[in-house]
Amino acid sequence: GAGVSQSPSNKVTEKGKDVELRCDPISGHTALYWYRQSLGQGLEFLIYFQGNSAPDKSGLPSDRFSAERTGGSVSTLTIQRTQQEDSAVYLCASSLVDRFNQPQHFGDGTRLSIL
Amino acid sequence: AQSVSQHNHHVILSEAASLELGCNYSYGGTVNLFWYVQYPGQHLQLLLKYFSGDPLVKGIKGFEAEFIKSKFSFNLRKPSVQWSDTAEYFCAACSSNTGKLIFGQGTTLQVKP
Asked: Are the beta carbons of A45 and B100 separated by less than 8 Å?
């Protein structure tokens, strides 16, 4: 099926290492979101891309987090110098052009574990 | 600040019992409201959404939610739950002021057979 695809599905890494998480949105979806789901914390908005507009980075928890979206399609979320509190499931979602009216479709997430 | 609150963090019901999960939001202006479900080991799926019109919204699998503007609420209901409804349920709101989709903390529903 042509759903939102995320890779890797699981990532275990040592504290202090950098990690890259990838998201392939549904073809034709110009809006792309990253969220973080931590135990007991629910879903936390991280960053939002919409077409060629400047991304909304207001949810990024620190300057160790960054994301880019190349060619309006694939997105990469990068976490530098990982900390144990970064352990969570990172979810990507995409939606059609009008983000206010179209539901988001979610990927299966990347489970990140920092040792 | 914009926020979404789910008051029930963990709900345990027997099959055939009725379900109501509370959701309150704090937003100014026009708001779109959603309920998502995450079954064990699966990704988030949309249950139902409210944009405008009839405040009673029907979704998949027999779920419905009612938008009550005066109470800033969007509670999820199902008359008779099944064991397969065991999952985590998230309420979410999107404001036209910010464009950000904000989620509640989630409610874990456990249905006993």
From this structure: yes
What residue in B sits closest to A104 (Cα-Cα)?
A: B46
Interface of A with B (CB under 8 A): 4, 33, 35, 40-45, 48, 50, 56, 58-59, 91, 93, 99-101, 103-109
Quick check: A23 and A75 in contact, CB under 8 A?
yes
Alpha-carbon distances of A106 from A34, A80, B87, B92, B94, rounded to whole Å = 10, 24, 16, 14, 16
**Residue B4 is inside which H or E element, if any?**
strand B3-5
How many Å apart are CA B37 and CA B106, to the nearest integer? 9
Q: What's the rounded mean pLDDT across residues B68-94?
A: 94
Nearest alpha carbon to residue B34 among B102, B110, B109, B80: B102
Residue pLDDT, tens place only, A21-52: 999 999 988 889 999 988 756 688 899 888 88
